[in-house]
Write a sequence for this structure.
């Protein structure tokens, strides 16, 4: 296996950054999140996982879709063409790679594809980093992932004592490896990559999706929602939550830009209809929706969990509503008749 | 925590009695979480579940804002409170979000809350009101006090040992440090903090002072602020929130604790507290229900700078 | 009030046309350009939003106009029933929409048409001014003044003084709303 020594990492990133935007986990204002690499960036490859997922790279918090103007009958629309540079996400963990596959399902697997997402996704190369020391809230193994590697990445980096084992998985990955090798940044090694330690958090989700079909009206949701604050911390930190709102940035009464920004099923306004009716009027309905979506609707539609076990919602829920508890408790509750 | 063993037993017994007798329709307390170092909020309506109640040095959550879920409901709810939480309840009572008939406040002695690593939370080291400022009942021998006081009750010794209130005099240290910076540095610092905000509104939802029925940030139609988390809109949210709780913030520190982006929200709240005290005299929000918050009253001889 | 009244429409409509020689060309807030207007000779002009109470300051401004007093045309007045009506969001919104400075003005304490409104204004904005300073805003960019209905010269002086104070500060970019 080829290896990239730790001391060559900055050179490797600099080399790649010459031709692409390279997103790396970095400390930004005290928070570990993905940021475009530059020599000034403080790398933080140890965070398991980074506090903010790389979701924002492919699905920005806010993006402009088109500009409109309407003066009387004189109406025009003009698409906002996003410039999408070649993009490399370096140091992404298995949980977040899996999350991107979930996003692909949502935005690309059925017609019509989401043009803006498709464009960014097509320009993106994933360089996954093995995750060998899971954080206290990680449970990816329970959700069927392998923290040390992911099959659907372009390049897989393995952890070695003083560097990273580099393994290309796709043609695009080969290209990156070739470029690094060409500059003499890679050496051959026979060192076996570090194995991942077991997650301390574990849960068995098997059969939950089927059981939830019978649980829409179950009193369990009342109990679970009682302490929920209905904030959006869980959904915004979640790497697979993809709900968005289309709204206007108005310049004046006639002109503006249609923008897309993140939205969350936890918010009251999310389901309010034009006439004022809200089909999810309370906490219970909103909390239920979140877990039903992750553990039932998504698996029904796309055949995979919409939770990758990254543990971000577990770590940052203000009232400690933990999806692992939900999976466990749903498995345990009794169904009436 | 062994000092709290009897308090835990008493909590469960009391909750069971209150629910069985129908005195209250529900009880807010805490339960043990998925790790021994986590104690999370719990709401029970069934006396059989009273045994899940637990209270220890990890029960940091202030549950008072959850009472807002029942503001349109006449039934009584019981709530267990530490000193800081009790100020949240006073906030709701004073803002007439709930009536005294809707809540039964049970005061608990506070041992000083610690993080998962076991070190005392800054807000506890800076705490001036470790005892409930109001309570219908108390457990663990804690004394109700509307004055800044030393911890009382069965955990008084433990609280003193870990240093609850030991840095009360340094509460404004972070504010002073920022005030010492130049305008450009301050601007850069806050721009960075506001940029981080993801507008999850955890700070607002956990706050007992943020109790509007209809928040301008929930209804985009009203056109106050863009839903998009831009730097401009985030700053608008942060400052609006700060001004809205100015003079009403009960200093429980929950906004800062729940912020997933670690924005120093309490620094802003403390800055406002400091200025209010300097301009309009000493005031502790959520302590005495009969004293109107400073921005809701005036004096004809207030400082005058706008001539 | 100011000789310029914002019109709806495209940015070009809003700019003062060639005919108004000597007046600065200012973009009104709804179409706020990255930086506000310039005069013909290229000098930058501050854009100031003033919230004026209906009973005192607005009357004072009116009187200044009737008396043909000369003052810089940099302020747009927003008439409010009472300075107590101005809440912090108004001020922030003005900054978001391109204001380089904001003035809140009302009756002198004791003279409020509603009795006590401006006492609350005083407390609120004493505090807000300090908070904005804490966040790095130059205190000159946000001010409050008491101007009675008969104080037309004071209105003229305040507008002149504020404009001259803000001019050297340059455009305010903090919190400016930019198109996403």
């Amino acid at each position: 296996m080829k290896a990239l020594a730790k001391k060559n990492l900055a050179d490797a990133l600099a080399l790649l950054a010459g031709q692409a935007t390279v997103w790396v986990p970095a400390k930004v204002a005290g928070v570990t999140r993905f940021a475009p690499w530059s020599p000034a960036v403080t790398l933080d490859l140890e965070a398991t996982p980074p506090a903010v997922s790389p979701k924002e790279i492919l699905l920005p918090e806010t993006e402009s879709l088109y500009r409109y103007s309407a003066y009387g009958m004189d109406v025009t629309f003009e698409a906002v063409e996003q410039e999408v540079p070649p993009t490399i996400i370096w140091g992404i963990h298995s949980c977040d790679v899996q999350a991107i596959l979930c996003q692909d399902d949502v935005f690309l697997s059925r017609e019509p594809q989401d043009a803006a997402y498709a464009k960014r996704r097509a320009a993106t190369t994933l360089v996954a980093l093995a995750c060998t020391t899971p954080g206290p809230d990680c449970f990816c193994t329970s959700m069927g992932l392998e923290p040390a590697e992911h099959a659907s990445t372009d390049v897989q980096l393995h952890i070695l004592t003083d560097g990273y084992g580099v393994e290309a998985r796709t043609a695009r990955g080969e290209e990156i490896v070739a470029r690094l090798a060409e500059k003499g940044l890679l050496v051959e090694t026979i060192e076996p990559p570090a194995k991942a330690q077991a997650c301390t958090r574990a849960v068995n989700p098997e059969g939950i999706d089927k059981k939830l079909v019978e649980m829409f009206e179950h009193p369990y949701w009342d109990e679970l929602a009682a302490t929920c604050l209905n904030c959006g911390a869980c959904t915004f930190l979640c790497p697979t939550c993809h709900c968005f709102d289309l709204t206007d940035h108005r310049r004046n009464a006639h002109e503006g830009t249609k923008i897309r920004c993140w939205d969350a099923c936890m918010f009251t306004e999310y389901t309010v209809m034009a006439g004022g009716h809200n089909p999810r009027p309370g906490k219970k309905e909103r909390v239920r929706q979140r877990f039903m979506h992750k553990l039932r609707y998504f698996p029904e539609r796309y055949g995979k969990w919409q939770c990758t076990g990254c543990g971000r919602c577990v770590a940052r829920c203000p009232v400690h509503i933990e999806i692992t508890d939900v999976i466990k408790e749903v498995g345990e509750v009794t169904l009436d008749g | 925590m062994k000092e709290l063993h009897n308090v835990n037993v008493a909590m469960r017994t009391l909750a069971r009695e209150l629910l069985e007798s129908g005195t209250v329709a529900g009880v807010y307390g805490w339960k043990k979480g998925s790790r021994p170092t986590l104690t999370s909020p719990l709401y029970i309506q069934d006396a059989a579940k009273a045994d899940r109640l637990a209270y220890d040095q990890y029960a940091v959550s202030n549950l008072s804002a959850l009472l807002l879920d029942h503001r349109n409901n006449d039934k009584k709810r019981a709530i267990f409170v530490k000193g800081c939480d009790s100020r949240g309840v006073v906030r709701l009572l004073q803002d007439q979000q709930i009536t005294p008939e809707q809540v039964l406040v049970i005061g608990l002695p506070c041992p000083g809350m610690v993080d998962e690593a076991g070190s005392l939370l800054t807000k506890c080291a800076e705490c001036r009101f470790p005892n409930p400022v109001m309570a219908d009942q108390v457990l663990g021998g804690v004394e109700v006090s509307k004055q800044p006081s030393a911890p009382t009750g069965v955990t008084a010794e433990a609280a003193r040992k870990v240093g609850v209130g030991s840095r009360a005099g340094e509460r404004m240290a972070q504010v002073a440090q920022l005030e010492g910076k130049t305008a450009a540095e301050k601007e850069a610092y806050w721009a960075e903090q506001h940029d981080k905000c993801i507008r999850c509104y955890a700070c607002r939802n956990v706050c007992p002072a943020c109790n509007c029925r209809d928040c301008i940030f929930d209804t985009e139609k009203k056109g106050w602020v863009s839903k998009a988390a831009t730097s401009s809109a985030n700053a608008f949210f942060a400052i609006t929130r700060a001004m809205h709780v100015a003079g009403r913030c009960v200093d429980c520190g929950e906004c800062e604790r729940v912020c997933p982006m670690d924005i120093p929200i309490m620094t802003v709240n403390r800055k406002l507290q400091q200025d209010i005290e300097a301009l309009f005299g000493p005031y502790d929000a959520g302590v005495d229900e009969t004293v109107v918050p400073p921005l809701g009253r005036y004096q004809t001889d207030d400082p005058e700078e706008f001539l | 009030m100011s000789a310029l009244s914002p019109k709806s429409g495209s940015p070009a409509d809003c700019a003062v046309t060639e005919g108004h020689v000597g007046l600065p060309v200012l973009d009104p807030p709804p179409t706020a350009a990255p930086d506000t207007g310039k005069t013909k000779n290229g000098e930058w002009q501050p854009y100031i939003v003033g919230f004026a109470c209906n009973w005192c300051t607005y009357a004072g401004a009116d009187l200044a106009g009737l008396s043909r007093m000369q003052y810089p045309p940099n302020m747009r007045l927003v008439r409010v029933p009472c300075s107590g009506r101005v809440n912090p969001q108004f001020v922030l919104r003005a900054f978001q929409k391109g204001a380089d400075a904001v003035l809140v003005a009302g009756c002198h304490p004791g003279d409020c048409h509603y009795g006590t409104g401006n006492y609350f204004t005083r407390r609120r904005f004493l505090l807000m001014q300090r908070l904005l300073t804490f966040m790095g805003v130059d205190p000159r960019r946000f001010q409050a003044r008491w101007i009675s209905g008969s104080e037309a010269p004071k209105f003229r002086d305040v507008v002149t003084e504020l404009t001259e104070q803000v001019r050297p500060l340059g455009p305010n970019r903090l919190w400016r709303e930019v198109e996403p």
Q: What stands out?
A: Chain A has two domains: 2-59+82-188, 208-245+260-332. Chain A touches chain B at residues 28-31, 51-52, 61-62, 136, 201, 223, 226-227, 229-233, 235-237, 245, 247, 249, 259, 261-264, 267-269, 283, 316, 318-322, 324-325 (CB under 8 Å). Residues 98 and 308 of chain A are 6 Å apart (CA to CA). The radius of gyration of chain A is 22 Å.
